[in-house]
Amino acid sequence: MNERKEPLDRDSQKEHEPVNSTQPSSSWYSRFFGWVKSHKRKIAAVFGMISIIIIGLGTYLAMHMDEAPLPHGYRVMGIDAGGLQPAEVLTKMNEQIAAFEGITVQFVPDRTDNRLDPLMEQTFTLKELGFTFKNEEAVNQLHQWEEGNIAHKWKLGRELAEESLDIETSLHVDQMTNAVRKSFGTTIDREPKNAQAQYITPFKVKYEEEVDGWELDEDKLEQSLIQLVSKLKSHPDTTQTMTVRMPLVTIPADLTVKTLKTRKPNALLGEYTTLIANRGEGHAHNVRASAKALNGAVVSPNQQIRYSDIVKETEEQYGLMMAPVIENGRMVDGIGGGICQTSTTMYNAGLLAGMGVVERNSHSLPVPYVPLGRDATYSTDGPDLVMTNETGGDVVWTTRVEGNRLKVQVYGQQLPGITYDVITEQRNSPVLKISNQITDKIAPEQSSIIVDSYRLKKRNGVVVNKERLPQSRYKLHQEERIEEKERY
């Protein structure tokens, strides 16, 4: 009998189907997603809370990083800036700069001399002496920290933690030197004073000692102040006045007493005498007055003596009077007549003493007190007599008026065996003889006379040099016009 088998339902069939061991089980997926599905509201709430926390934390950090203090280990100008805000550090930096600028300095003499005592009477601040203090790099770093974002601060903080910036110093040298020179003047810049020789007589001298001068050594002063500031940067002391030696350079006097003693005259080098004509009180006064002004004149080696200076002193000390002068080729009365006799006598004494001739001019008309070619005229703003000292020592001039005689003497250092003589050569003939009395007609037929003069230098009586002197030219008619007024 055949039995009829009913088919199983699908579930039952599946339930009895053999399980394939290689097919993964999906039960935990089902359970997980089922759990998520059933708890999706709670999960969404949790994620929302987490997002809020993260955003809040980020906002909090961002807000507080803007006010984050500088990293520890960061030092600026000796200030421990770690944990401080940039504004606080800038304030401390400015206080430090002000303290350095306000440090006082007093200068002390670098030698023993009471003329330098004024140095101790004044102090200067470093700022007054031209010092400035700063650190631009630190200022830039502080501004970067203050303005940077989180990432920038994070990076910069690691760099600053190992940074130590010193104070930067600058010195304006011109301000330094101007400050000390304005305050101390000749105390630190003093001209030397040469020794002086006062000749009481040509052989008796009173000496005044030389005095050395000094001037500021700007380079050493700059170095000294920079060294002082360098020490202060390492060990700052803003409470005490710092002392610095004022460096001065000695300027020796050009002329010492020792040198002057070697230039003292030892002999009469030359003298000349002329006769003073009787042309009235004014003429005699002018001769005597100009002789007094020349008396005692001292000419140093290689220096000049100008008769115009003697005339100026004559006018200031004694005044000049009216006396005969040569004007426009004629003898007329004028101020200063007679002073040319002193210049002429001086010229001849100087020639015999070996003085050099720089300028000499003859009168326009012959004069009676010296041979032709031996006179030396003078006129205000015109011809002058200028001689130079070509000896190795001082030359001292002396004058003396005895009766109607004027004597001029020149003292100096005598070279052994050396003497001088003067000769003249008249180109025209006959030789003109000049009377001591001036008349309206003093000239012969000739219109002029030319005279050549020479100085002979002799050694032990033997001529060793013949020097040509300035030529002389004389007009022989008073009517001929002469531009200068000569004092005769």
UniProtKB/TrEMBL annotation:
**Record carries keyword Transmembrane helix:** yes
Alphabetized, the UniProt keywords read:
Membrane, Transmembrane, Transmembrane helix
Kindly list the residue ranges recorded as spanning the membrane. Answer: 43-63
Domain named YoaR-like putative peptidoglycan binding: residues: 123-233
* Name the UniProt record assigns to this protein: YoaR-like putative peptidoglycan binding domain-containing protein
What InterPro entries does the annotation carry?
Glycopeptide_resist_protein (IPR052913), Vancomycin_resist_VanW (IPR007391), YoaR-like_PG-bd (IPR022029)
Region ranges (Disordered): 1-26
Query: Could you tell me which species this protein originates from?
Result: Paenibacillus agilis
Cell division as UniProt keyword: no
Biased composition regions of type Basic and acidic residues, renumbered to the chain: 1-18
